[in-house]
């Protein structure tokens, strides 16, 4: 079976709708035909300051949310990155074949470090994409389902895989990103030309899966829309309306064309009301499923440690081969 791998950071109490529609939703059906590895990159999380207690709590919250959306730990390997030391070990080797300039061209790093200033930017943030490459290459993954903002990191991963293979002999699978065009970028509700993001400036622009559905409904209803009153999908002229249509269509299974027709007469108000309703219908059972998993943290931890064991079985084989290829003396 071809392998699929992806990860989501435990840096907020809740995943947001961008995470879900851009990435997580694809993870579920991919479990059927693929050998799936899904993980929580806590080592990526500490590239910016984290409160240790919160990080631990959010790691469990992330696991509970992944189970609740339908990741099945019997069919998928679900684990926490720091439980598998091979990620850090491979990342060191990859650091040594990555150009300084090449890493410096990563736009996410440039944006984040520009915001924080060079003195408060950790070196970990700079090497973050190389750790991500290690995550992917360790499992010889074929497919990596992510949103648009990870595309450049995937390109780097492919370059590093090809470079290593050319220099030391074929060791890695060169992975493909799977990015679903319509949902690759879910936009902020208040600034619909910017991506929805947990670090966004205005919390009203973000729909968190675990927020009170009443709060989320309100956020949908106060979403910034566009001039005019025609409900039509048009990213350039009507970014706000297009974003709502995308969200509604993804959660309701109705096509954009169907929605345009349905709300042709009613204007933006009807579209917002219906979208709020569809969203509530989706998050209400999800929230209670998450609560169910959180009620038994010991069982959650068991699921994660079984996952880590399975992950290590694959990761250690890859790392061993890599160490041999680069000329490290076997440790006997
Ligand atoms: P993270 O935790 O920021 O986001 C998780 C996933 O959500 C997608 N995403 C979006 N998709 C559409 N619209 C949005 N507004 C939106 N916001 C976020 C992201 O593209 C991502 O797929 N570096 C990764 C985590 C990671 C990883 C990996 C992923 C670490 N190692 C190996 C894949 C493979 C990240 O920070 O994602």
Automatic annotation (TrEMBL):
One Pfam assignment: tRNA-synt_1b
Keyword Protein biosynthesis among record annotations: yes
A biological-process GO annotation: tryptophanyl-tRNA aminoacylation
Protein name: Tryptophan--tRNA ligase
Record: residues binding L-tryptophan: 135
GO CC aspect terms: cytosol
Record-linked PROSITE patterns: AA_TRNA_LIGASE_I (PS00178)
Leader peptide range in chain numbering: none
Catalytic activity, EC: 6.1.1.2
Enzyme class, broadest EC rank: ligase
Matches recorded under Gene3D superfamilies: HUPs (3.40.50.620), Tyrosyl-Transfer RNA Synthetase (1.10.240.10)
Binding sites annotated in the UniProt record for ATP: 9-11, 18-19, 147-149, 186, 195-199
Function per UniProt: Catalyzes the attachment of tryptophan to tRNA(Trp).
Entry's Gene Ontology molecular function annotations: ATP binding; tryptophan-tRNA ligase activity
Principal subcellular localization: cytoplasm
Record family assignment: Belongs to the class-I aminoacyl-tRNA synthetase family.
Top-level taxon of origin: Bacteria
InterPro entries: aa-tRNA-synth_I_CS, aa-tRNA-synth_Ic, Rossmann-like_a/b/a_fold, Trp-tRNA-ligase, Trp-tRNA-ligase_bac-type, Trp-tRNA_synthetase
CDD domains according to UniProt: TrpRS_core (cd00806)
Keywords carried by this UniProt record: Aminoacyl-tRNA synthetase, ATP-binding, Cytoplasm, Ligase, Nucleotide-binding, Protein biosynthesis
Subunit details: Homodimer.
The encoding gene: trpS
């Amino acid at each position: 079976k071809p392998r699929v791998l992806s990860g989501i950071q435990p840096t907020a109490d809740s995943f947001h709708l961008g995470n879900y529609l851009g990435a997580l939703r694809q993870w579920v059906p991919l479990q059927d035909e693929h050998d799936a590895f899904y993980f929580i990159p806590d080592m990526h999380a500490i590239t910016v300051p984290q409160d240790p207690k919160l990080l631990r709590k959010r790691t469990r919250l992330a696991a509970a949310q992944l189970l609740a959306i339908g990741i099945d730990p019997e069919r998928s390997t679900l684990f926490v990155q720091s439980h598998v030391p091979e990620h850090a070990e491979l990342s060191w080797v990859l650091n040594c074949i990555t150009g300084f300039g090449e890493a410096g061209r990563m736009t996410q790093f440039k944006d984040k470090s520009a915001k924080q200033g060079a003195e408060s930017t950790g070196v970990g943030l700079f090497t973050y994409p190389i750790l991500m490459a290690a995550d992917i290459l360790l499992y010889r993954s074929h497919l990596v389902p992510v949103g648009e903002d990870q595309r450049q990191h995937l390109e780097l991963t492919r370059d590093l895989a090809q470079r290593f293979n050319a220099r030391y002999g074929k060791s890695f699978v060169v992975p493909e990103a799977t990015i679903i065009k319509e949902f690759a970028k879910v936009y902020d509700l208040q600034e619909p030309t910017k991506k929805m993001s947990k670090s966004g400036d205005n919390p009203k622009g973000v729909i968190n899966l675990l927020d009170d559905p009443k709060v989320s409904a309100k956020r949908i209803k106060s979403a910034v829309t566009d001039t005019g009153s025609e409900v039509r999908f048009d990213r350039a002229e009507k970014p706000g309306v297009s974003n709502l249509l995308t969200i509604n269509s993804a959660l309701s299974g109705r096509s954009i064309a169907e929605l345009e027709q349905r709300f042709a007469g009613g204007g933006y108000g009807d579209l917002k009301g219906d979208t709020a309703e569809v969203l509530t219908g989706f998050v209400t059972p999800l929230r209670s499923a998450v609560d169910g998993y959180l009620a038994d943290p010991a069982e959650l931890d068991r699921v994660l440690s079984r996952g880590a064991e399975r992950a290590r079985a694959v990761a250690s084989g890859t790392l061993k081969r890599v160490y041999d290829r680069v000329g490290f003396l076997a440790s006997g």
